[in-house]
Design brief:
Blueprint (H helix, E strand, L loop, with lengths): L17 H28 L7 H6 L17 H14 L1 H21 L2 H12 L5 E4 L15 E5 L2 E12 L6 E8 L2 E8 L5 E5 L11 E12 L10 H36 L1 E2 L2 E2 L4 H30 L4 H25 L11 H11 L6 H13 L6
Parallel strand pairs: 1-4
Antiparallel strand pairs: 2-3, 3-7, 4-5, 6-7, 8-9
Helix pairs in contact: 1-3, 3-4, 3-6, 4-5, 4-6, 6-7, 6-8, 6-9, 7-8, 8-9, 8-10
């Protein structure tokens, strides 16, 4: 199969700066050389290749969109291109980097004190300290505002009780950004996962995102000091601000998965012969390839426009919701169609579309399901809240 060189039918490459193209080239080379060889064994084993953490840090991926504290300070487009290349390998790889960067580090950067930023962010950027984002609970997914985890003020700090579930990086994180109710308001705390009363479990029975470390966190009378509170967090809206940052990375990332599927399928159908000619020469095959290429191009345009709006400081939450559900569904549809075109070979680990398809089922659900984002956009369009 010919090496991957990107799928860019609209010459969007011309819209990127030299620096943005260089960032993409660097991450693409690393993905091909270091990440791709790890994917099959890690996915089959249901484990994350922790040996990649150091090189991810060396590449400046952790907190790449943030300024200072050892972070790269890249613009939104360069950061998006990073996420696109990582998810071309596997959604679990992009998710690992996105949770570390767009959720955990962003929460500290945006809502923490200068002391907290200095304490945590340099080590997180260097990959020496991994973070998780503890928002979702087993009984409260989309309805995060009904969370039961709570914090009570005590002398010198807070006592926290509760549990979080479906938390990426749960069992490898040194700290978790823990969201809990304090005095009837949702606030965030930086909690050391080695503290007494913190217990962790990994979810093993997953059919999707197998290369991602996903688990549960339980907090039983966990005592933290006063400086564990992220003072800037005031409500659930603070958590949603972090989630919008992570959703932005998804908008770009899923395009990488879709592009990898399409590239794989084009190469396969060109070389696979049936009835005396290549599959790629059949009309129905070309129709599906053309439709997928057009759909991917629209998703790429949408990601690029969000990036430009983010650069200008005019990106709205409705833009992020629209792009999250649209691009993710498009990528999932492309992965499914590509698996179909690969025939029986498509259900093996020899080709990526089935693995991407399974992963994208999860990406279509987490950080706001398709339906939730449709309702968020619908609320913006009509002024009527249909949620709850």
């Amino acid at each position: 199969m010919n090496p991957y060189k990107g799928i860019d039918l609209l010459n969007l490459d011309s819209q990127f700066t030299d620096d943005e193209r260089q960032v993409r080239a660097t991450i693409r080379e690393w993905v091909d050389r270091a990440a791709m060889p790890e994917v099959e064994s890690s996915f089959n084993a249901g484990s994350f290749p922790v040996n990649l953490v150091e090189s991810l840090a060396d590449l400046g991926i952790f907190g790449a969109h943030l300024d200072g504290y050892g972070c790269a300070g890249l613009g939104p487009i360069a950061y998006g291109l990073m996420m696109e290349e990582l998810e071309r390998a596997d959604s679990g790889l992009r998710s690992f980097a996105s949770v570390q960067s767009s959720l955990a580090m962003t929460a500290i950067h945006e809502f923490g004190s200068e002391k907290q930023r200095q304490l945590y962010l340099p080590d997180m950027a260097a990959g020496k300290l991994l973070g998780a984002f503890g928002l979702t609970e087993a009984d409260h997914g989309s309805d995060a505002g009904s969370m039961e985890t709570n914090a009570v003020r005590i002398d010198g700090g807070y006592c926290i009780n509760g549990a979080k579930y479906w938390i990426t990086n749960a069992t490898v994180a040194g700290i978790v950004i823990l969201w809990a109710k304090l005095d009837n308001a949702i606030r965030a705390f930086v909690v050391d996962t080695s503290l007494p009363g913190v217990s962790r479990e990994e979810i093993h029975n997953k059919l999707s995102m197998r290369m991602s470390v996903t688990g549960g966190l339980t907090f039983q009378n966990v005592v933290v000091t006063e400086d564990a509170l992220l003072e800037g967090t005031k409500s659930l809206g603070s958590a949603l601000q972090c989630l919008n940052s992570a959703r932005y990375s998804i908008v770009w990332g899923v395009n990488g998965a879709a592009a990898d599927c399409l590239h794989t399928t084009i190469e396969y159908t060109k070389n696979r012969e049936q009835f005396g000619k290549s599959l790629a020469s059949f009309q129905l095959v070309q129709q599906k390839l053309a439709d997928m290429a057009a759909d991917l191009s629209r998703s790429q345009l949408l990601a690029l426009q969000l990036g430009r709006l983010k650069e200008q400081g005019t990106l709205h939450w409705s833009h992020v919701s629209m792009a999250k559900f649209s691009n993710t569904q498009t990528a999932l549809d492309i992965a499914r169609t590509c698996r179909d075109l690969l025939g029986a070979a498509g259900i093996t680990m020899d080709f990526s579309p089935m693995r991407h398809s399974m992963n994208l089922e999860t990406v279509n659900t987490y950080e706001g399901t398709r339906h939730m984002h449709q309702l968020i956009l619908g609320r913006h369009l009509t002024g009527h809240n249909a949620i709850g």
